[in-house]
Structure formats: structure tokens, C-alpha cells
User: Fold this.
Amino acid sequence: MRLRAATGDDLAAIIALERASFPTDAWSEQMMCEELASPHSHYLVAEEAGRLVGYGGVRVPRGAADADIQTIAIAEAARGRGHGRTLLAELLAAARARGAREVFLEVRADNPVAQRLYESEGFVELARRPRYYQPDDVDAVVMKLNLATWRGASAAPFDAGRCS
Assistant:
């Protein structure tokens, strides 16, 4: 697997994976394009054999004390091979490099695999948001990571891509 900065050229493949991964509450093409173009966002794509098999993004204005993992998705055929963990580590490294000290995220309460991944990286549950994910009426688990104590990679992050 190869990671690289997401660009506007990746939008169609990202949206296809978004819809496959989150069929009832996928982001729109416009929302994703705005995320890719934002100077406050850092998006990466994961490729295997020239095909996009995952993507993830973090929102962190430079110099901000906190950041938010916006999304991580891995194609079903590529799951279970550490791609999500690799994407998460790079996104956390990007947040740290931009000056964030804490990272927040919301994860579906009915997604124990993702919850275990985040917990294994040091995220702790802060709260629950009832019926956050619509139209499914699924609660969100709000989690936080202190980057000062995160034991993950300290590699330099990729530069954010831009939507064209």
C-alpha cells in the first residue's frame, strides 16, 4: 500500500468508496470537494496496484490546539490489513505537525472494529451523542486523544491535496 496526498483528481474514487462505506449517510461530492480544498484539512489516499483502497482526513487549522478526524474509509476487500491504522497514524502525525495537542473524533456506536482501533491508539471515550448518525438513529461515540502521550509514528506528514 502507498499513501499520498489526496487531490481533486481523486474525488470520483473517494466518493465511490464513501458511498460504498457509508451507504445511508455518505458525504456529498460537494462536501468532499470542499474538504479536499480547505487549507484546514489534510486528506490522504491509500493505493494498491494503482487503485484507491482507502482515504482519510483530519481538520486542523495551523496552530490550533485541537484537531478532528473527519473520516477514514477502507474498501471492504482491503480491510484487516492495517490500512486504517496506517492512515490514522499519518493523520495524527499531520495534526501534531500543525501544532494540535488533542484530536477528537466521532465513531458510530455500532462500529466496534473502528472503536477498538481508536482505543488501541490511545483515544478515550468522552461522551455519546444520541441518534447522531441519521437516518439510522445510531449514537456517536465521541473520543479524544492527547497527542503529547500518543506513542505513534513521528514521521513527517504528507502535504494536503487540493480539489481542482
The first strand starts at residue 2 and ends at 5. The helical segments are 11-21, 29-37, 83-97, 112-120. The domain at 2-146 is CATH 3.40.630.30 (Aminopeptidase).
